[in-house]
């Protein structure tokens, strides 16, 4: 007990360690600095000096990312978010701003275009760029998912901070060499920027496989509706149609998009029989993607109080997606 008290007393001020570690980073000893950032912050945390631990981790994450040490910076970023939860820091604007500052340090680079893939050097460049992009996205995603989990637990919306979801969706979409539009949509619908989401969807429509464009739009609308968010579901559709028109593109016309237009009108009133009739009429289109029926079950429950036959269905989907499965 006496030793523990002494250990707590002799820990130097955080700024002293931050200055010392900054010199190590600037000398190019990134690996050595990384081990010191981790051990120093761990000592502060074990002494319950969480504010000092967070200061050390934030400084280290930002410095390593500034020096393009993505793996090191991402690891310290993740530790920062996990320490927020461990120390039970309340969600507030000041702490959110600290998360923002780290997030902004994650670099953004486009994968090289117009390369001669028959050329070995160009092929190597492309392979390296794709691997680097995957590392950036995985690192940033792990950090922001941990921050979202903290925000949900300590004061933000039950699904976590909408702004953090928007950050993650935007980074995943813009930086992933192979975009999983379903995972991107999962975070956008828990955000608060349907206009930006619409831009991402219209951009995706220009490069997806034939027949995927209407699926992406309808999936996004149903995801909003499954959360009970009719306002943003309508706003998303309006924004997509407006942007498609401005860019002189064609809005995908299919039975599925026709169905979702009718659905949005139906949900504005108490019309469960019509909801069920539409679902039956467009069943073959809805069955194009298995998750649509799950989402429609959620929508029926949210808007009309229809309980699932198995109340455990759908539980855990949020955490499964957050884990990247």
TrEMBL record:
Pfam families noted in UniProt: GET4 (PF04190)
Organism encoding this protein: Solanum lycopersicum (Tomato)
GO terms classed as biological process: protein insertion into ER membrane
One CC-aspect GO term: cytosol
Protein name as it appears in the record: Golgi to ER traffic protein 4 homolog
Domain of life: Eukaryota
